[in-house]
């Protein structure tokens, strides 16, 4: 596991073990690599062979994340008979950094080359969470034939929020025990509507978050605070669906403006589904309701 180096004099970062069932889920995946910069991009695959019946289902995680952003959804999607490809995006998880750039636009070409290597001319069903949704929109604007549909989950950069609605705290310079408190704060500020979810299920959310942020090598991301996704969507040829938690911290006070923004930007927008009692990390906080919403989008 490649961890972002600490600055000289900073303390060792806090680490938390992933629960046993997550380690078992990871062990059941086939690991496939495609070229990326001076190394490779990692894809985790479950349900090999199911793509003969349906398009491969490709999941792109959020910022400071990895495939673990989908940890509570993989088994549900496999039970639906889907072949699931969960990426570690370039610069995150166990993937190499992209050859140039440090934002979503730098990921477009490594992703496009990887998807063509994996699937040839076959279009996938593409689901992008948060930063991964922004990346997916930029990808399909440049390479529209790669996906037959796009599902955006909690995606930023739609140009409806005048200023950031949350504040995250720095943690790398702090002692390990204090780092964990900052991680809890950041999860509550951005990712989860219910703070009790942070330590539920043996602290799964906290363990996933700590594991993810230690491997974030793309710290200078700015496009999420622009209208970059809204500007990319007019170039898309495929149907576009959106799923958001009603309490998404990115759109606090502005969630009602989202549907109109999507309808104006995406030529084939199929609708916004809002999930109650869920924040930004909606697929983790409400996995059952998220699955129902995603299946509606995938069935159209």
Automatic annotation (TrEMBL):
Residues in a coiled coil are none
Q: Which molecular function GO terms apply here?
A: catalytic activity
Locate the AB hydrolase-1 domain: which residues?
57-293
What name does the UniProt record give this protein? Pimeloyl-ACP methyl ester carboxylesterase
Might you report a single GO cellular component term?
membrane
Task: List the Pfam families hit by this protein, alphabetically.
Answer: Abhydrolase_6
Record-linked InterPro entries: AB_hydrolase_1, AB_hydrolase_fold, AB_hydrolase_sf, Epox_hydrolase-like
Origin organism is: Melaminivora alkalimesophila
Among SUPFAM superfamilies, the record links this protein to: alpha/beta-Hydrolases
């Amino acid at each position: 596991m490649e961890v972002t180096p600490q600055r000289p004099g900073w303390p060792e970062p806090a680490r938390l073990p992933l629960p046993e069932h997550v380690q078992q889920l990871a062990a059941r995946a086939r690991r496939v690599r495609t070229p990326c910069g001076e190394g490779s991009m990692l894809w985790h695959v479950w349900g090999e062979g199911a793509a003969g019946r349906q398009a491969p289902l490709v999941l792109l995680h959020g910022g400071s994340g990895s495939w673990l952003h989908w940890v509570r959804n993989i088994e549900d999607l496999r039970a639906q008979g889907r072949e699931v490809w969960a990426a570690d995006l370039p610069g995150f998880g166990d993937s190499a950094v992209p050859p140039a750039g440090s934002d979503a636009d730098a990921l477009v070409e490594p992703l496009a080359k990887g998807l063509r290597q994996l699937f040839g001319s076959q279009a996938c069903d593409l689901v992008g969470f948060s930063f991964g949704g922004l990346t997916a929109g930029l990808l399909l604007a440049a390479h529209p034939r790669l996906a037959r549909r796009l599902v955006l989950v909690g995606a930023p950069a739609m140009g409806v929020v005048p200023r950031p609605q949350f504040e995250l705290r720095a943690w790398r310079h702090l002692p390990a025990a204090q780092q964990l408190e900052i991680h809890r704060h950041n999860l509550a500020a951005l990712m989860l509507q219910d703070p009790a979810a942070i330590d539920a299920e043996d602290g799964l959310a906290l363990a996933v978050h700590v594991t993810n942020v230690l491997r974030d090598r793309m710290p200078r991301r700015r496009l999420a605070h622009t209208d970059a996704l809204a500007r990319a969507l007019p170039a898309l040829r495929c149907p576009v669906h959106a799923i958001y938690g009603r309490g998404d911290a990115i759109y606090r006070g502005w969630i009602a403006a989202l549907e109109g923004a999507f309808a104006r930007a995406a030529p084939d927008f199929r609708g916004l589904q809002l999930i109650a009692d869920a924040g930004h990390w909606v697929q983790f906080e409400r996995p059952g309701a998220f699955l129902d919403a995603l299946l509606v989008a995938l069935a159209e």
